[in-house]
Specification:
single chain, alpha/beta, 6% strand
């Protein structure tokens, strides 16, 4: 709300200094803000004879004030304009002063009552004759508040600390008056450290408000506190209580270390995961004063950007570590061999995600969505359990409007993606304390990985540790992990609340076994499937139809259907495949399929692979449609889309060649061969993988069944198919094919004649094989399954 006295102050400033070089005209709106404060500072500089006016209240202004004015009190005889500037500052701070009409003339006595009130509100003595020195003037010419700002979290307890600090240390050279608004801040944190350094005996010019070795050594030698400790010549107990209050602890600001102090600090020690002594020991002082705490303590956790292979993981465990933070994607992403090493060593994983994110320009909603999708798919490729917390990075000193604007926008994007996919991951934040707490308060993060070692960040100074902190990164160092060179690590304190991933239950990613170019070493087809699945899930989950949303958790049928088109869905054969492998037509399925296929069409194309993808997809759909719970010596309708029809095609090709060659030898060379073959390697693997991924009786997600298949070498898959489908028996292969070779069975009726022409057309043969030919054919197939293909991939 506009204040008429502030407006008169603005008018007076413009009228008095408008012609002064460097003057910036003020908007005369009656609103106190930085522009008005800057105007008052420029006016003071003009009166002090400073030629180049500026917005700051720096060393030049401070020195000139001390030299030319000293203090403003009842004995002041200087320029009337100085008193007018003081009066304007009082009005802007909400105190009563003299109205600044043109030509106003008054003395200090008209301002002394308000000056006394200012001093009292700042925690300073008023004395018989209140005065304004340079520190009070600097405070008045700022936006510091002297009343509790409850809307910003201000409390009476913190205000008491602020006033006590001002009152005791105001006269020290480098101590700047802090606001008395009840809000913890960087300025208050610095003031507390200066006060502690003064009590440790540091002289003016030496004390600097930094938590350096001098302060650390002084704490160890002078400031160890316990029940019964009281202040005397030194005020360590009072400052310890002040530090407790600034960390949000419920304690009074007094000078005796009581049993209450011990109880409260014991709870804090437990919360911070430091030794629970109930004393004001060195480690506890550190935890109260700086975001990194005591960096000399042993930690259970660490993070690193380097791969922990070659025995490093086991060495880390020998050094006492139980948790490691590793990146899902960066230049040194977590690899498959590394995951195996971490699992074998027994280390628990803390998943971190960072794509630069080291300046505000990266903090956008769109980056949040794209990075969340990348994190989602990489975590699924690795096999991290749904619900695991992934910590997204804000790797810079994000403060104020940046936290509430760009950072919040970024995390909204992350949450929108993670919330749009069933069986997703929880969102954590890696950042300074302020950003962590703000995102948690907004419901955009479930917990914090605090970048506590950045002690100079404004986002860490003046902010208590978030209640939902999980990890606190305290020191950048290196460790000898037995590799012959030091590994750079960050020591990390682990909270008992901190969730982590038990790698014993993590299958890991399939690695590339087909010789394709994979930047990560992970199987390209599996990575494509995970990406496709996530895109389909998001598209389906976006639909308003609740019945359609049911397909978001596992859209594999739609992905398989899309992969088999148009090879097995063209105009010429659509009718046959529509009957044999019908599309899901339950309620909501059509709309779910449409948005899924649209999403797939807009995404990356499937990678080139040895596997015949359309064939694999339609064969898998056949087992899904007709069932895969088949006795080893019998056939099922699901087999017709795979190995059975392919085996008939081999027979048809042999027949059309004249049938002169030995059928067994000829078929053994044909099945699984590279090049021109009707049942070549690509077809064989498609049939094998279709059966394996169908996984009879399994209730796991298709993705996890596919992971298992893609984790196996091609020949291992072929032999596993032989074992699980035919119990590794050539006679079972022959018995199963015999049920198909002369016509299909329908219930009690065997070898139904009308079905034979259908098989003939599909297999391109004229007459069905004789029993001898059938046994030769199935023996060749069984032997190929037992031997595998000639050349491993």
């Amino acid at each position: 709300m506009a204040d008429p006295q502030v407006r008169k102050t603005q008018q007076w400033l413009n009228t008095t200094y408008g012609s002064k070089a460097g003057w910036v005209r003020l908007e005369e709106d009656g609103l106190t803000g930085w522009s008005t404060i800057y105007g008052l500072r420029r006016a003071l500089q003009a009166e002090l004879g400073i030629s180049q006016l500026a917005s700051g209240f720096g060393p030049a202004t401070t020195s000139a004030f001390r030299t030319k004015i000293g203090k403003i009190d009842a004995s002041f005889t200087g320029s009337q304009n100085i008193l007018c500037i003081l009066s304007g500052a009082l009005w802007c701070k909400g105190y009563t002063a003299i109205t600044l009409n043109p030509g106003a003339v008054f003395g200090f006595e008209g301002l002394s009552g308000s000056v006394a009130s200012v001093r009292a509100d700042l925690g300073l003595s008023t004395g018989a004759s209140p005065a304004v020195d340079v520190k009070i003037m600097a405070s008045l010419l700022s936006m510091d508040a002297y009343t509790i700002l409850s809307g910003y979290g201000g409390t009476a307890e913190i205000q008491a600390v602020q006033r006590r600090l001002n009152g005791i240390y105001h006269a020290r050279q480098d101590f700047a008056l802090v606001p008395c608004d009840g809000v913890h801040s960087r300025a208050v944190q610095t003031a507390l450290l200066l006060a502690l350094q003064y009590e440790l005996g540091m002289a003016d010019g030496v004390a600097n408000g930094n938590f350096g070795n001098g302060t650390k050594n002084g704490l160890k030698s002078q400031a160890m506190l316990s029940t019964g400790s009281v202040d005397g010549a030194k005020r360590f107990v009072m400052l310890f209580h002040a530090a407790m209050i600034l960390n949000g602890l419920g304690i009074s600001l007094n000078s005796s270390f009581t049993s209450t102090t011990s109880s409260v600090i014991s709870s804090f020690q437990s919360f911070m995961e430091i030794p629970q002594t109930g004393k004001g020991d060195y480690t506890t002082w550190c935890s109260l004063l700086v975001s990194c705490g005591d960096t000399s303590i042993a930690t259970k956790g660490f993070d690193t950007s380097e791969k922990l292979t070659g025995g490093k993981a086991a060495a880390a465990v020998r050094r006492g570590y139980t948790h490691v933070g590793r990146y899902l994607v960066t230049g040194n992403y977590i690899s498959a061999p590394e995951l195996d090493d971490l699992r074998a060593a027994g280390l628990r994983l803390i998943p971190l995600f960072q794509r630069f994110n080291n300046e505000v320009s990266y903090m956008t909603y769109d980056n949040g969505t794209s990075q969340a999708f990348e994190a989602l798919t990489r975590a699924r490729v690795l096999g991290l359990p749904a619900g695991s917390v992934i910590y997204f990075a804000v790797d810079f000193d994000a403060t104020g409007d940046v936290v509430n604007g760009p950072v919040a926008n970024y995390f909204q994007g992350v949450n929108d993606v993670m919330g749009s996919v069933p069986n997703s991951y929880q969102v954590g934040i890696y950042a300074p304390r302020n950003a962590c707490q703000t995102m948690i308060d907004r419901g955009l993060a479930v917990g914090a990985y605090v970048s506590g070692m950045s002690t100079g960040y404004s986002g860490n100074m003046g902010y208590a540790m978030p209640q939902e902190w999980h990890y606190n990164q305290i020191l950048e160092t290196s460790a000898d992990l037995g590799s012959g060179s030091s590994t750079p690590i960050d020591k990390v304190v682990v909270s008992r609340k901190g969730p982590s991933v038990d790698l014993a239950a993590v299958p890991g990613p399939p690695i590339e076994k087909e010789g394709a170019n994979s930047a990560t070493g992970f199987d390209l087809l599996f990575m494509w499937y995970v990406n496709a699945e996530a895109r389909c899930s998001m598209a389906i989950n976006d639909l308003p139809d609740g019945a359609a949303k049911a397909y978001a958790a596992d859209p594999s049928a739609f992905i398989l259907g899309w992969l088999r088109k148009p090879t097995y869905w063209g105009n010429a054969n659509r009718g046959m495949w529509l009957v044999y492998t019908p599309e899901v037509d339950n309620q909501g399925a059509t709309s779910a399929r449409v948005v899924c296929e649209n999403a797939l069409s807009r995404g990356a194309v499937p990678p080139d692979t040895v596997l015949d993808l359309p064939h694999w997809a339609v064969s898998t759909l056949a087992y899904i449609s007709w069932g895969a719970n088949i006795s080893p010596a019998q056939y099922g309708y699901g087999d017709l889309g795979g190995w059975a029809l392919d085996l008939y095609s081999v027979y048809g090709k042999w027949e059309s060649s004249g049938g002169g060659a030995d059928l067994y030898s000829w078929a053994l060379e044909e099945i699984g061969a590279e090049g021109d073959s009707v049942f070549g390697r690509a077809d064989l693997l498609a049939d094998v993988d279709a059966w394996l991924v169908a996984n009879p009786g399994s209730t796991t997600l298709f993705r996890e069944r596919f992971r298992r298949v893609r984790s196996m070498a091609p020949n291992d898959r072929i032999r596993e198919f032989y074992r699980t489908r035919f119990a590794s028996s050539a006679s079972n292969v022959d018995a199963a094919f015999a049920g198909i070779a002369y016509g299909l069975d329908l219930g009690l009726f065997k070898d139904i004649g009308p079905t034979l022409p259908i098989l003939r057309d599909a297999g391109n043969f004229e007459a069905p094989p004789t029993e001898e030919q059938r046994r030769a054919l199935t023996s060749a197939f069984a032997d190929r399954l037992a031997r595998g293909v000639e050349d491993e991939f």
